[in-house]
Write a structure and sequence with these properties.
145 residues; mainly alpha
Length: 145
């Protein structure tokens, strides 16, 4: 049973990681290559569409990692669960203030701080990419041993 939980943990975490890394290496740099108004106009719907998918994958990856550990899979599964699970509080504590400022109804896309907020968002999102990458690599290593 811990093998099934480990597979689910790895799959969910790897999917999260792939999406997060894609955002940081492809999508966000492409949007930031546009003028601020266009970058901002693209960021908001992209963020809102990605939220449900990424939140679900992070939570499932963490819960399945805890399950793999609880079912005797070893402490590495718990560490992986902590790594992927950490993206959730990090998002709420570190990224959400930036998101709220960007999504404010009175946000002026031409305001000088709009581009700064989008740049900060990209740097903050990179932390999520790194955490999920470490969790994915750990989970993969645990699967193959």
């Amino acid at each position: 049973m811990s093998d099934v939980a480990g597979l689910v943990a790895t799959l969910c975490t790897a999917l999260f990681c792939g999406a997060a890394v894609y955002i940081n290496l492809v999508e966000h740099p492409a949007r930031m290559g546009c003028d601020t108004r266009v970058a901002f106009a693209q960021w908001a719907p992209s963020y809102q569409r990605a939220t449900l998918m990424q939140a679900s994958l992070a939570v499932l990856g963490a819960l399945a990692g805890v399950a793999a550990w609880a079912l005797g899979g070893g402490s590495g599964w718990l560490l992986g669960a902590v790594l992927i699970g950490a993206v959730v509080p990090f998002t709420f504590l570190a990224i959400m203030p930036t998101n709220r400022r960007l999504l404010a109804p009175d946000r002026d896309p031409d305001a000088p701080d709009t581009r700064q907020l989008l740049e900060a968002w990209g740097r903050l999102h990179a932390v999520r990419s790194a955490l999920s990458l470490f969790a994915t690599l750990l989970y993969l290593a645990l699967l193959v041993r």
